[in-house]
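Q: For a teaching handout, I want to show students what a protein-ligand complex looks like in token form. Below are the inputs, and the small molecule is S-adenosyl-L-homocysteine. Please produce the holo structure.
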Amino acid sequence: MLLTTERIWRLSVLALTFVALSTWTPTTTAQQSTEVDGYSAERDRMVQTGIIDWGISDSRVIEVMRAVPRHAFVPPEYLRQAYENHPLPIGYGQTISQPYIVALMTQAVGVESGDTVLEIGTGSGYQAAVLAELAEHVYSLEIIEALADRAGDTLRDLGYDNVTIHHQDGYFGIEDKAPFDAIVVTAAPDHIPQPLVQQLEIGGRMVIPVGPVGGYQTLWLLTRTDEEEIQAQNLGGVRFVPLTRRER
Ligand code: SAH
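A: Here is the structure, written as tokens, with S-adenosyl-L-homocysteine included.
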């Protein structure tokens, strides 16, 4: 049903092999500060029980999840739950995603060091930080201005200077920064936005939850194999907030 809404591209379902790059170690700002932020033991526990034990195997992703201070992205009243493996409210009816889902999407989309990445749904900025640890540059679009502003402050305070946040409807992507090597959509539309497909580099990957508002969605990994062809892999059932269409 999902795939028949595709008018432009021919979709075919193929299996995907995850490539684990065991030799990579991150050397970025957040990584260097983990020893002194007072939460590294909790973060290590979260990574073991909520990420490794749940099947995430890409060592780069595991290291980054160990490095990014999730507690800096949650509201003060949820600080004590910052390293629990579930989503948390961030205000305006939105949530910071569950750590496992952030790791799953990051692993699936396969970000490499020279990549330019687009994220739709900045929210707290946490997923953007995780992507920024791996990519050359991350553009992140957020439809709620107050969240875009707050995430921008958080990321700046943590020293992420390779993330650019824009307050705008992510449905249309950012045409003048395209093509993107990877696109991560963290709010759920009921169909695949064609502007985003068109902004994917050949060989680029997009991870996106698609499904009805208020229901469960399917998490898809799309790979643009050439001008005309997209491969799609079903990564399973997920629950995201809906992709809305009016800026607030
Ligand atoms: N990635 C976030 C979690 C995002 S929750 C994090 O790591 O914290 C989904 C976010 O998508 C919400 O902040 C919501 O406001 C935003 N959103 C919903 N529809 C959008 C749209 N059309 N364009 C951009 N952002 C959108």
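A: Two things your students might notice: Residues 29 and 159 are 6 Å apart (CA to CA). The two ends are 31 Å apart (CA to CA).
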